[in-house]
Write a structure and sequence with these properties.
The protein has 170 residues and is α/β, with parallel strands linked by helices. The chain is 26% helix and 25% strand. The chain has one domain: P-loop containing nucleotide triphosphate hydrolases (Rossmann fold), CATH 3.40.50.300. The protein has 5 helices and 9 strands, in the order βαβαββαββαββαβ. Strand 3 and strand 4 form a beta hairpin. The termini are close together. The model has no long low-confidence stretch (mean pLDDT 92). It comes from Paenibacillus glycanilyticus.
Length: 170
């Protein structure tokens, strides 16, 4: 079976990264290889300023790679579309995407505060909503086809995303 792609979305400081890390732990414990793709709304620096590869890029390199016995990192001086990154990920990996709210892939939306509910009416592909403890989500706010989870229900969410993830073309 081809691996799948699933998005974890929500506004800043809603717990996306924490949930993604917990889902990685859960899926890996079940023997599922996981790849991740994260959207950063700001410019980021992939390596410390005075490393050799950072110096290569500051000298004008548009593509820079570094490899060791344990890992490889590639930095491109251009943005990449989500579908391009998905295509570069290992074929056998289940891809967890953090962010990229507007993409049309199956997604979970995290709701921590009242203002977060707005996303439930704006985004497409919502198959799940995760709410924080103590937050009472209006029942009519949850899209008809979506399942509702507590944010700490990692097993329930993990099982859901394995079923609902968009199958990759192999």
């Amino acid at each position: 079976m081809a691996a799948a792609v699933y998005q974890i979305t929500g506004y800043k400081n809603t717990g996306k990264t924490t949930l993604v890390c917990r889902l990685i732990d859960y899926l890996v414990s079940r023997g599922v290889p996981v790849a991740t793709i994260k959207h950063d709304g700001h410019s980021f620096e992939a390596e410390p300023a005075h490393t050799d590869t950072a110096r290569h890029r500051s000298s004008g390199a548009v593509w820079s790679a570094i490899t060791s016995a344990d890992r490889t990192a590639i930095v491109k001086e251009k943005p990449s579309a989500l579908l391009e990154l998905i295509g570069e990920a290992p074929a056998e990996a289940f891809i967890l995407v953090e962010g990229f709210k507007a993409e049309r892939l199956p997604k979970l939306v995290i709701v921590r505060r009242a203002e977060d509910e707005r996303l439930l009416g704006e985004l497409s592909g919502i198959t799940a909503v995760a709410v924080w403890p103590g937050y009472h989500l209006r029942k009519d706010a949850v899209p008809a086809e979506a399942e509702l989870f507590e944010i700490d229900d990692v097993q329930g969410i993990g099982d859901h995303i394995q079923i609902k993830g968009s199958r990759r073309q192999s």
